[in-house]
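Let's practice the habit of predicting before peeking. Look at the sequence and jot down your guess about where helices and strands might fall. Then scroll down.
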Amino acid sequence: LLLNRITLNKNGIEIKGLLKRSTYNWSEVTNIHLTGKEFEKFMFVSMPMEAITIELKDDHHESLFVKLYSNMDRIRTALHFIKIRLDRHEEVNDDCFTPVQRKEPKVYDTARLERFGGRHLLTMNGIIAHGGWIFIAWFFLFSDSPMNLIAKLIFSIFILAFCIGLFGYQLHYFKLNEEYLVVKNHVWLWKNDRYNIADLREIVFEEPHKMSTSLRVVTNNYETKLYPAGSIRSKSWSRLSKEFKKLNIPVRNEAYFD
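Done guessing? Here is the structure:
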């Protein structure tokens, strides 16, 4: 975002926000945590949010919240190489800022993928997402509304966008085997995100504020994406977590299921 900016170079880091600007030399940094949660304060509420944590020699730390930066994957990648050099007590150089080439997922065999989905029509998200279509059908066929056709169409588009957009977003499900993770959606039928297992750095199970239990994917390039999945029950989440661990993928369980 324009109000939040991070500048990295071989001498240090500059963090610029709306009301605050901080600059630190790498010699002041004691540790860098590239993934994890920190509490973000908003008004009178604090909520755990995904963040980078930079620890400093004076027992102070800086939290860089993922959602505030559009190129957080590049920031994390650069800090990854900087952390390696700092841990080795070496100087930071220009090699830390060399872009890492992205890999395209390979073609996968869907026949061998195990599905983790649940019955979305039995959830509130599923009922409301599909209920939008039922309401629109009733509105056009049986309603005595004085709206003209154009007004009805605009109103219908708004209702469908609200129901399918907001509630459909929380209806992802997953397919997994020893080679691939595929993310689909019960309502957004075009959704088809693919990940090679070898490209996954970390999996996070979390419960975002006022949203369904979600799966966050963090790749080796520190690209991260959140997938709310309200149709999946605790037993299936637990089974999915165990499958990721079998594949030697680090798992953070912040959703409090066994």
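How did you do? Residues 67 and 136 are 35 Å apart (CA to CA).
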